[in-house]
């Protein structure tokens, strides 16, 4: 999909994000501090939670495939449980701090439209079958001990659709339909890999902020040479 580039604080930025699920904000300082500023400008008083920003630095990085940002991380700080990530973060902001010398182009896909175009039985699986969303990451430090059960396509109680994409999905423990689930997940992976090759690429400038409706859009980037650095912040709004 084509992503509009709009100056930060321009009302058209919110319109573009609402219309297509993605927008690139320009004109902000190249600093992690621009992430909460951009979030406040876009969402105002509907902001509910901002999670700690994280820096990702990759050297000669491989392809990062289409995905929606989601993770379930609760840590204990001085005896108090503190949530640092949420599995249903509804917006993600990515600031390009340092562009790679070569490669690293971004791509974004309207996941609602894509999954609606799949074969009926695969659509039925995505909307009707519970999986462990992070089961293939079992043992990763910080993940919950209990399975995170959900479906790839769900709706919030206010009717907002979520179309998930994670490479951690696995059958539920002792699910009698495990073989079927594994087969359908493999088919889903193949469909995503195929569409990823056709999605238009675009380049971010240093300091640009890519903002995504994390319920609607998946994103990724191509392989690159040299060093590439981004700052990422996820948020939840009242709509979540």
From TrEMBL:
Stretches of the chain forming a coiled coil according to its record: none
A GO molecular function held by the record: dioxygenase activity
Domain of life according to the entry: Bacteria
Origin species: Lentzea xinjiangensis
The protein's name: Gamma-butyrobetaine dioxygenase
One Pfam match: TauD
All copies of domain TauD/TfdA-like, residue ranges: 12-228
Keyword Glycosyltransferase: no
Keyword Protein transport among UniProt keywords: no
Keyword list, A-Z: Dioxygenase, Iron, Oxidoreductase
